[in-house]
Amino acid sequence: MSTTAPGKTPYYFVPQPSRHPVMSAVGLFFLILGASEWINGVTWGKYVFFLGLAWWLFVLYQWFSEAVGESEGGLYGRKIDLSYRWSMSWFIFSEVMFFGAFFTALWWARSHSVPALGSLDNALLWPDFKAVWPSVAAGATGSPAGIVEPFQTMGPFWLPTINTALLLTSGVTLTIAHHALQVGNRARTIGFMWLTVLLGIVFLCVQGYEYFHAYSDLNLKLSSGVYGSTFFMLTGFHGFHVLVGMLMLLFITLRLMKGHFTSERHFGFEGAAWYWHFVDVVWLGLYIVVYWM
User: pTM of the prediction?
Assistant: First the structure.
């Protein structure tokens, strides 16, 4: 739906009524239903889960394909560009609040909950409690009831440090690709974008090995007290965001190879870059607070 003559970029574009929101909601319904039943041991739960996931992904593919077609068809003018920029800005702000809540939970556990449990007020209730952080002492955990198995903490060397170098390097390669796109060097842009995607994949592989090492060698699990829960909560959700960001960059790279985007109009690229740099910054906070402190 356009407000200007055909062949010209509209002042503002309003898409036609679409089936995609409803179809996407249906897919999410079956995805969540299947996941909840699968967790509770119902045999058909996993089949419903994968059916809902496949349905949802197919709808998103159609939806995004239409949006790409509208963009490449010249229907998105300055107003749409501004709306996308504001939308991405608010989305990243919501992600800041998301991780802010988790960082606050970690701070509260370290600075308030654990010391309070070891205070004189709780000495009679928990006489053997060790108010130390991480919640592990020499040869035993800070669990007087014995419900937490002994574990070792995850230090910064070497896997987390390697991942830090990988993410920082990916931020540099992404910036180089952006500058190359701004000057119209598409080949250089595509090359550095593929390098950025590869660095993201390697990061996820290293983190997967880190989790294997934590479970098999350190006995560090999600059930390892407040330390284990906050460790896997923060690093796990960040890893999921790296996966999402890597997929965004992958699809942007594939669009670049198809000739999409120009030096003047490439907010799809910029939005994905904003998200990736946000993921980088969050990891730096995690690297310091979780692994060093």
Answer: 0.86
